[in-house]
Amino acid sequence: MLRVSLITISVIAGYLSLWPVPIEPVAWQTPTDTGLTGVFAENSHLAELEIIVLEDTHGPEALAIKDNVIYASTREGWIVRYNENTGQTDKWVNTQGSPLGMAFDANSNLIVADAYRGLLAISPSGEVTVLTDHINGQPIHFADDLDIAEDGKIYFSDASSKFGAMAFGGINAASLLDIIEHGGHGRLLMFDPQTNTTKVVMSGLNFANGVAIDSQSQFVLVNETGSYSIHKYWLKGPKAGSSELLIENLPGFPDNIVRGSEGRFWVGLVSPRNQLIDKLSSYPTLRKVIQRLPAFTQPDTTAYSHVFAIDQDGNILTSLQDPAGLYPTTTGAMESEKWLYISSLHAPNLARISRHSINIP
């Protein structure tokens, strides 16, 4: 009996030490989590969201708006439309992939960052075209979010050049691998429709995510989910071609970032920070061991609703939360004339709240 036990222990120890996993964790020092304090003090402003039912789809991860119609990308591949005037919803186009960030160009094409297919354009009639899915001869594995500058250039994030969404089990599984490894595989890319070329703008990001350009196209913001931070890359002026850290040490994992009115940008925190991930940041070997454990024991998102707005200098303008997380994994927010729409990675429906009720001018 003792021999059997020793053999079992040896097998388990060998598995936890030697079984191959896809990650090669990098040691880093996570900033101390100050939690929901100060400008991020806990509140319940999102506790009374209005729900808009989406039929047979879920996870309206990213949003776009045109002519009072809200467009939402869902986990089933559908771009769903919601008409603010009539209250009607419909499934418009299926990208046959995993659509994430979206924005309309000057010709009313809906440009989509599809995690499986690359950068897409959907014409007003619903025709889907791949704009780019390679860079320097290599595939783009995880197109995530985008925005379009006034000159028509499309800036978009490649969340991870190593852990592709399709190859590694979908956007959730791939994102967790990239964040746990912390290997700096994320990039900000730019596609120029005039020359049909794609180039790297920024690299070395830990899960590059949300992308937003200011109204004058002076700079582009990009969220670095795995490092709890937001970067600013200058497109014009004396700093053009350089970047700076706009915000660091956020209390959660930043997902999308969307330009609003009055010079503000909306950011979604898809989940509060995970204490285990933070504590193991400087212990790459232990992170590798954890990756060998059953999936249910590994770090995952926490149900908590949280979006906030910043100005162009990174000052926090407002923070909207729901500790109960009734509308979980909030990826971002988008303004219409009267409403603030909230997007989600996993929620079954779309949500919104009156701008007047939360004092948003």
Description:
- With 361 residues, this protein is mostly beta strands.
- The chain has a single domain, classed as TolB, C-terminal domain (Neuraminidase).
- Helix content is 11%, strand content 40%.
- It has 4 helices and 26 strands.
- The strands form 7 sheets. The protein has a 4-stranded antiparallel sheet with strand order 1-26-25-24, with no helix packed on it. A 4-stranded antiparallel sheet has the order 2-3-4-5, with no helix packed on it. The chain has a 4-stranded antiparallel sheet with strand order 6-7-8-9, with no helix packed on it.
- Strand 22 and strand 23 (316-322) form a beta hairpin.
- The radius of gyration is 20 Å and the shape is globular.
- Residues 4-18 have low confidence and may be disordered.
Question: What's the arrangement of secondary structure elements?
Answer:
Layout: H1 2-18, E1 50-52, E2 62-66, E3 69-73, E4 78-83, E5 89-94, E6 99-104, E7 110-114, E8 118-122, E9 128-132, E10 134-135, E11 138-139, E12 143-148, E13 154-158, H2 171-181, E14 186-192, E15 197-205, E16 208-213, E17 219-224, E18 229-234, E19 243-247, E20 252-259, E21 265-272, H3 275-279, H4 284-291, E22 305-310, E23 316-322, E24 330-335, E25 339-344, E26 350-354
Antiparallel strand pairs: 1-26, 2-3, 3-4, 4-5, 6-7, 7-8, 8-9, 10-11, 12-13, 13-14, 14-15, 16-17, 17-18, 18-19, 20-21, 21-22, 22-23, 24-25, 25-26
Q: Architecture, CATH level 2?
A: 6 Propeller
For the record, what is the CATH homologous superfamily label?
A: TolB, C-terminal domain
Backbone shape: globular
Instruction: List low-confidence stretches.
Output: 4-18
Tell me the β content.
35-45%
Structural class: mainly beta
The biggest beta sheet is recorded as: 4 strands, antiparallel
- Over the alpha carbons, how many angstroms does the gyration radius reach? 20 Å
Q: In order across it, which strands form the biggest sheet?
A: 1-26-25-24
The topology string of helices and strands comes to HEEEEEEEEEEEEEHEEEEEEEEHHEEEEE
Total of domains: 1
pLDDT average, as an integer?
94
Helical residues, percent: 10-25%
**SS element count, helices:** 4
The beta-strand count equals 26
Reported by name, the CATH topology is Neuraminidase
CATH class: Mainly Beta
N-end to C-end Cα span: 72 Å
